Prior knowledge:
Keywords: ATP-binding, Cell membrane, Membrane, Nucleotide-binding, Transport
Strand order of the largest sheet: 6-7-8-3-9-10
Oligomer: single chain
CATH superfamily of the domain at 7-89 and 160-249: P-loop containing nucleotide triphosphate hydrolases
InterPro entries: AAA+_ATPase, ABC_transporter-like_ATP-bd, ABC_transporter-like_CS, ABC_transporter_ATP-bind, P-loop_NTPase
Structural class: alpha/beta
Family: Belongs to the ABC transporter superfamily.
GO molecular function, one term: ATP binding
CATH architecture of the domain at 7-89 and 160-249: 3-Layer(aba) Sandwich
CATH class of the domain at 7-89 and 160-249: Alpha Beta
Strand content: 15-25%
Distance between the termini: 25 Å
Radius of gyration: 19 Å
Protein name: ABC transporter ATP-binding protein
Helix content: 25-40%
Largest sheet: 6 strands, mixed
Number of strands: 10
Amino acid sequence: MADAGTLEIQHLSKQYTVKGEPLPVLQDIHLTIQPGEFVSIVGASGCGKSTLLRLVVGLEEGYAGELRLDGRRIAGTHLDRGIVFQEHRLFPWLNVEQNIALGLLNAGLPAADKARSVAEHIALVGLQGFESAYPHQLSGGMSQRVAIARALVNRPRVLLLDEPFGALDALTRSHLQHELARIVAAEGITAILVTHDVEEAVFLGDRVVVMAPRPGRIRRIVPVDLPRPRDRASAAFARLKDDVLGEFSGHVPEALAPVHLRSPESTAASTSAPATGWRFAI
């Protein structure tokens, strides 16, 4: 089990330069994520959700403010942060076991320890028996399980998920949401999910961060005080989902008191499998 990390974001701002002019992308973001907490981030396209995730993982730099993991300022990528993208990004010439092992390339572990960790994470994502299968032999959902295992095999302190199920069909997506909740609970890891799907955000998150666009800033943080496993058909779940959706229309249901802030994108991609070849079911 990984040691969960504490992520502190204070006065975080980010801008790009476009045609010689500054383009603010994020403005004065304040957010603290506790060890083992699952936070979902939702917002319209262009609100800076994915930029925020890329800053946390260390793929973007040049920000203003404070961005710290366990008290240390984030600068560049590190094995203490793992990320899963919408596209699984598996290497087609490597099998499941080899793709997951890539996550340990710079881990400095003995070969036996690496093999044991890979086997443990194959079991964690439910892919026993598929160790020797290649990406073109897997369904989209199974490929994303491999990507999740690869992100977790280092036992990072924070798992970042950027629209990980956005390219999947509805049934596969629902199944993997259940699986992700189970996996994150089993690992005891801190997790941050960026998604356009409000139902997914409520189903998975302990809190839902709603962002406003241009420049991106936190509009509201909604706690999700529902027991796990969550029932999408329950009235309480529907009320919370409608509450979050109300932020996008500018209307919050009267029956729900507003929750104020405590301190105040990914492109669509497909799991590219060759037209020929065969697939296993999820």
